[in-house]
Amino acid sequence: MMAVMMEYLDKNTVRIILNRPARKNAVNFEMMHKLNGFLDELDKDEDLTVLWIQGEGEAFCSGGDLEEFHGLRTAEEAKKMLIPMSGVIKKIISLDAVTVSYLNGPAVGGGAEIASSTDFTLGNASAKAGFIQGNLAITTGWGGASLLKRRIGYHAALKMLATAKVYSAQELRDLGFVHQIVNDEKDVRQWCTEWVKSPEVVRAYKKNLLPEVERKQLFELINQEIERCAVLWEGEAHHKAVEQFNNKQR
Ligand SMILES: CCCC(=O)SCCNC(=O)CCNC(=O)[C@H](O)C(C)(C)COP(=O)(O)OP(=O)(O)OC[C@H]1O[C@@H](n2cnc3c(N)ncnc32)[C@H](O)[C@@H]1OP(=O)(O)O
């Protein structure tokens, strides 16, 4: 089974499905590398108006695969995962098409970081999101803190990050993390058709709203997040917390 799939819904709309439902769509190296390749392809598609990202099954994404990434012990080893995955996030941010994540269940840890990287997030009643990295004695390392601050502002972002709490669909809507509560994929599909017919117009607005100078600043902030996360990653507290998760669950 492919860890992630991409399908064109029409000439202007593409959907990426994170496809590891037995692991609640946790990101592993295979998913990361395939996402990277898909986004390179999409970057060249000048007809693309909307990229929709969702998870298979009953979750959006449970973050990094704690079993696979537990083998990364030192800060330098952690960066071999943090840098390419933040690269994926940077590619989502840089896309000239409108990007939307659809939460049909939990988006936690790195899953919440992926959701924060899209222009919009829609969720159904089962949507939940939490930056639970703090419970594992690390911080966001894919750029999520900087992206969250852009979306919901400094105070709400600090609270969400530093309490590591999981928020309900309605709480996320109230905060502006989720932009719209929908019933199902049909509603998301409908949402994807609301943009003007000319891809050039949509794509030009994306460039206007995230000019190169701002994008560079944002990427610099993301790079700083990687460094801080990597330092914490090699600490004993992080390794112990991950061991606890892995032992409890199996
Ligand atoms: C590296 C970047 C930074 C990060 O992402 S740090 C955060 C890492 N993620 C986490 O700590 C989230 C851990 N998962 C959870 O909290 C829950 O599984 C979650 C997503 C709320 C879903 O809860 P439930 O619906 O009750 O499902 P469950 O817990 O029974 O999980 C089903 C099976 O999936 C597995 N799973 C879930 N999240 C995983 C993960 N991140 N890495 C590896 N395996 C993961 C889980 O162990 C369980 O496996 P099994 O069926 O017991 O063998």
From TrEMBL:
GO biological process per UniProt: fatty acid beta-oxidation
CDD domains the record matches: crotonase-like
The protein's Enzyme Commission number: 4.1.1.94
Main location as per UniProt: cytoplasm
Segments crossing the lipid bilayer: none
One CC-aspect GO term: cytosol
Catalytic activity: (2S)-ethylmalonyl-CoA + H(+) = butanoyl-CoA + CO2; (2R)-ethylmalonyl-CoA + H(+) = butanoyl-CoA + CO2; (S)-methylmalonyl-CoA + H(+) = propanoyl-CoA + CO2
Record keywords: Cytoplasm, Lyase
GO terms assigned for molecular function: methyl/ethyl malonyl-CoA decarboxylase activity
Superkingdom in the source lineage: Bacteria
Functional description taken from the UniProt entry: Decarboxylates ethylmalonyl-CoA, a potentially toxic metabolite, to form butyryl-CoA, suggesting it might be involved in metabolite proofreading. Acts preferentially on (S)-ethylmalonyl-CoA but also has some activity on the (R)-isomer. Also has methylmalonyl-CoA decarboxylase activity at lower level.
Family: Belongs to the enoyl-CoA hydratase/isomerase family.
Name of protein: Ethylmalonyl-CoA decarboxylase
